[in-house]
UniProtKB/TrEMBL annotation:
Organism for this UniProt entry: Saccharopolyspora karakumensis
GO molecular function terms noted in the UniProt entry: DNA binding
Alphabetical keyword list: DNA recombination, DNA-binding
Descriptive protein name: Site-specific integrase
Residue intervals of the Core-binding (CB) domain: 14-92
Record GO biological process: DNA integration; DNA recombination
Entry-linked InterPro entries: CB, DNA_brk_join_enz, Integrase-like_cat_sf
Length: 239
């Protein structure tokens, strides 16, 4: 849980550096603090730590992010952008502050294999859903514009269809023995939990109303368990 920190009431005392320090001090989770400290600290230094926060513009924030991590890996860019966005949102709840500009967008991640397959999947399409069915919807089925490809008229692939296709292409011992699309839900919650996400955030992400339902999905790896066990015995574990 975050610590409640009051900002100074004197506008001249609300410098970029001071507000960055107060924000980081409000973070109780050490994993979050460790990840945010780099992004917030470097961005504050780039903007000018002695500047009044109210004088910083949205575009300056975006330019600072581009300068610091514009050439970084997609995962690094998204993480740094998200951290700075959280910092500035926290500031705006308490005082006048800039925001990450809209042109400074979050990037989607594709590995090399996906990138090579993507053109075959899109087949020249430049809008609409990425995954579509192989036929147009029937006359009795009404779909919204977001669920229909504007170029081909094909409908968005439903969850049930995607689940059946995944099983069909990965099954080795007959129908129902392949990968289950639902397993990706387990993996996502596990990775979020290992990254330090709280139970409330996991519940919000998975849309579960009961904590015990989320626990079924969270299966930490041996490495994650070893790391948390190491907290009980800092230093050389052989002593």
């Amino acid at each position: 849980m975050s610590t409640v920190v009051a900002l100074p009431t004197n506008p001249s005392a609300l410098t970029v550096g001071r507000v960055a320090e107060l924000f980081l001090d409000s973070l109780a989770n050490p994993n979050t603090l460790r990840g945010y400290a780099t992004a917030v600290g470097k961005t504050a230094a780039k903007l000018g730590e002695d500047r009044p926060l109210a004088t910083v513009t949205d575009d300056e924030v975006g330019e600072a992010l581009e300068s610091l991590w514009g050439q970084a890996a997609v995962g690094t860019w998204n993480a740094r952008r998200a951290a700075v966005g959280s910092w500035l949102s926290w500031c705006r709840e308490r005082h006048e502050a800039p925001a990450v500009p809209r042109w400074c967008k979050r990037l989607a991640y594709w590995d090399a294999g996906t990138a090579r397959l993507l053109p075959r999947l899109l087949k020249g399409r430049c809008g609409g859903p990425v995954f579509t069915t192989h036929r147009r919807p029937g006359p009795g089925k009404v779909l919204g514009p977001r669920d229909t490809c504007p170029d081909t008229g094909l409908a968005r692939l439903s969850y049930g269809q995607a689940r059946a296709l995944l099983d069909a292409h990965t099954a080795h011992r007959g129908p129902g023995t392949g990968w289950d699309l639902h397993e990706f839900r387990h993996s996502a919650l596990t990775h979020l939990g290992e990254a330090g996400a709280s139970l409330l955030l996991l519940m919000a992400k998975s849309r579960h109303k009961k904590p015990e339902n989320v626990r079924r999905y969270f299966k930490p790896s041996d490495q994650a368990l070893a790391e948390i066990t190491g907290l009980l015995a800092p230093g050389d574990s052989r002593r």
